[in-house]
Amino acid sequence: MPSEQYIWNVASLKEYVDKQFQLNQIAINKAEEKMDLRMEAMNEWRAQNKDERGMFATKQEVAFLTKMVYTGVGIIVAVEFFLRYYTALSK
Q1: Of the candidates 11, 52, 58, 73, which lies 20 to 30 Å from 36 by C-alpha distance?
Q2: pLDDT in tens, 59-70
Q3: Share of residues in the chain with pLDDT > 90 (%)
Q4: Co-location of 62 and 18 in the same domain
Q5: Rounded CA gap, 25 and 66, in Å?
Q6: Dist. CA 63–CA 31, nearest whole Å
């Protein structure tokens, strides 16, 4: 801001406003550049996140595999029971 002693006239006021406009435009350009960099980084992160999510098992896959494990454990327990039962009978 000009000093208090500054005498305003149309030419000096126009010069001051033009200078402020130029400074504002420079600040806007810098902010746009920073925002572009930020958005680019966010897009990279989104793409990486999307790729990583594709590597995880879905809820349905986990449910199916869990069911298969429980079924397998149940079969093993049943086989062990029958083996012990028939071993005990043969003695």
Answers
A1: 52
A2: 999 999 999 998
A3: 46
A4: no
A5: 61
A6: 48
What separation in angstroms does the CA of 69 have from each of 10, 53, 56? 86, 24, 18
Domain that holds residue 14: 1-56
Are residues 57 and 65 in contact, defined by beta-carbon separation less than 8 angstroms? yes
- Separation CA 55–CA 70 (nearest Å): 24
Specify the number of domains making up the chain: 2
Shared domain check, 31 and 7: yes
Query: Are 8 and 50 members of one domain?
Result: yes
Query: Which residues fall within 8 angstroms of residue 16, CB to CB, at 6 or more apart?
Result: 2
Q: What is the rounded CA–CA span in Å between residue 36 and residue 22? A: 21
